[in-house]
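Usage example:
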Amino acid sequence: MPPLLEIKSLSTHFFTDDGLVKAVDRISYDIHEGETVGLVGESGCGKSVSALSLLRLIPNPPGKIVGGKIFFEGRDLLKLTEDEMCEVRGNKMAMIFQEPMNSLNPVRTIGWQISEPLEIHLGMSREEGLKKCVQLLTDVKIPEPATRVNAYPHLFSGGMRQRTMIAMGLGCNPRLIIADEPTTALDVTTQAQLLELMKNLTRDYQTALLIITHNLGIVARYADRINVMYAGRIIEKGTAVDIFKNPRHPYTEGLMASVPRLDYDIKKKLVPIEGQPPDFLNMPKGCSFHPRCVYVFDRCRVETPELIPIFENHEAACWRNVK
Amino acid sequence: MSKKTEEQIEPRRISRIGPKAILRGVLKHNLSRAGIVIIILLASMAVFAPLLAPYDPNAQDLYQVLTGPSTDHWLGTDNVGRDLLSRVIYGSRVSLTVGFFSVFISVCIGVVLGLIAGYNGGVADMIIMRIVDTFMCIPFLPFVLVLAAALGPGLKNIILALAVLGWTGFCRIMRGQVLMVRELPYVEAARAAGASGFRIMFKHLFPNCLAPIIVAVTISLGGFIMLESTMSFFGLGVQPPTPSWGKELRTGYSYLETVPLFSIAPGILITLAVLAFNFLGDGLRDALDPRLRGEGKKIK
Amino acid sequence: MRKYIIERLIYTVILLFLVSILIFALVRLLPGDPIAAAAMANTDLADKRIMADLRAHFGLDRPVHIQYVIWLKDFIRGEWGKSIGSGEPVMTMFLDRLPVTIELFLGATFWAFLIGFPVGIIGALRRNSKLDAFLTTGSIVGVSIPAFWEGIVFIYVFAVILSLFPPSGYVRFFESPWENILSVIMPTFIMGTGSAGLLARFVRSSFLEVFSQDFIRTARAKGAKEPRVIRKHAFKPAMLPVATVIGLSWGYLVSGAFIVEFMFAIPGLGRMGVDAVFARDFPVLQVILVMVALNVILMNLFVDLVYGILDPRVRVNR
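Running the assembly step on the lines above writes:
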């Protein structure tokens, strides 16, 4: 069965006053029906831009999707007209954003906002929409949904707003939900609750989920497969188990080592990755990670590695894997 | 805490925009560049008036009354034969002098009061803001009109009238900025390190409040010049025989049908002056706004 | 919400009181004896005894603070006295001229909205394009042109050369609707252009600000098409600061009225005020200034209340 989403060599560039920023540089990965995929990387590596590119929400100027294909349900999204794309957004593919504080319209009620995609895509009337709304609010476990429907966002806590966003995303029963750092702005307890909720809902609704985060703990628990991103490129891909047990890229290795764990010896020091994330305006030649890499050798400085298959369903972009 | 510690806390700029970057940002816009050019031209006109004006602006020639433009008199002559071009050139002196001085005094008063009101709060704030609110209930033009009429004609009185009423806007802006800035963590830190109130006010608070003030000053320069000419138009302000743009315009109005240039020409200059300051103010506003500057950077 | 309204109302009353003191003091600053000025215009009054009588009649021989109290009492009761120059009751003069100025205000606001809103919205939608640059320049020019010069140019072009509109004068609506409109087109347009420029700039920046907000991105991500995003998501939040601008520019409209009525010889409140300043006609001037201040204060109150209605966040925070 073909994948629900096939991204092939997607590139998104930003044309700024200070120069060209290749925020997303020829990334490729797939997502299958009902699967949960994690996209991991540090802040500024381009993962959010790649997600926005999927929905073609990149602000132009200064950004532009310059190449690649995005096959969703068999169609190349990049070839659709804007109107056709609008039919996909919020309907077949939905997105949940990072800042629940700012992502909801302050002058519209919760009910109105959740009901909106239902009205646009499913042709529901306001009354039908609001009824479905109450049901959705119940699904995301917001208490007293019938009253809350008429509330304004500023009355909600962060966790509740994020649940609202989830309800908004689920409304039209999309095939794929993209969650961009869905829990970063929330406290730890709420994070856990929300992720459990998302996992259960996507299982019940049989929706695929793309979780974008810098938090390895989240992807370890919830993702089936993981893509690791660095400086605009995917540098390792594999199942969650593989990536955690056997990271084949120095960056992934470094990420694992830098996360504090409860079962570590207290006296053991955290090992951060040396150096700074690269400046997109001034990328290193060859492998973009080489200035920070402990295993660096000559080939790394000169040639940029592509993703090299190592095991079945496990690839890494590192010359160490080619001997 | 020792004094040493406090001195180690560098007054931080909220917006890391240095003067050079501001200049670059301003010059980027065509409009503000045009504004700067016009201002320089007008200022030169005022400073070098004796060199530029072909005639003595007060020299009357009763044989050449109300002539239209000619090779002798590029803008023609007024109703007592004085060369209009020279009068217009000298008129720039009045407008720019009034503009700069009245804005300068207004800013001084307004910024100090705003700083006190914002930083000290309490009774001082209440009194100052009530005064500001009361003054601002009366629209600027009628207010200045009555005050200028009360003080009488003359350059100094016009400057005084504008300054005495014009500080309120700056006071409000300053107070708003102070309120915003004083909550910032590094001000707390300075206080914790033992800095005195004064020191905090001037070294830490003040520089970060300047951005909107600078914009307001620029735009006010245009506004006050416009008001000066309006007052001259009404017959207040500088007295004959001193030429002033507003006054020439008023005199010219009576002869609109025969010599339209008489009133059109000074008006063009007033408009240019105000326009130039508004363009510049606009450019400054864009250059100083940290949000607008982050435009070209990519999103995470 | 109710608490908010009551608080604002109380403050308004206090403000009015303070303003009345300010106005009274301001007017008293005017040099020159109004009685003497009136006597110069009307030689019947030139007798010393008559002038002394008049002074007593107008209360001008009492100490200033007593004059204030008397005046305040009378003002609230609606006894606005008589014009020192013409002897006409001020109330009559006021009511006679009020509709004229109201008509000018309405016309000016009409022009301001008609020009300001579209220019601002188009500028925001087509930002940084040549059209945007042109519209921005136009807006700034609109604000920068002195009203009296604009008046002169318009009079020259449309009245003298083209003879389309009368160069001055005013015809009451009920006398002749068509001529009324003709006589009012130029003055209202001039009054309106200043506010239009300001409004356009504010609308544009407000829209741009709203468009950069995250919730607009969310709306697009839900599949809303651009017209819907503008209408249903951007419009309401963008209008909030615009309400403030309308309040702000109200003061400018008042100033504009003074100039325009003077230039076009329109018998409105502005003209009344200007004449009173030069004639040192205290009773008239005081009334005009208080009314003008009242106008501004009420407008600001209105804007605050509108904010309270439009922005649900304000209701909670108050």
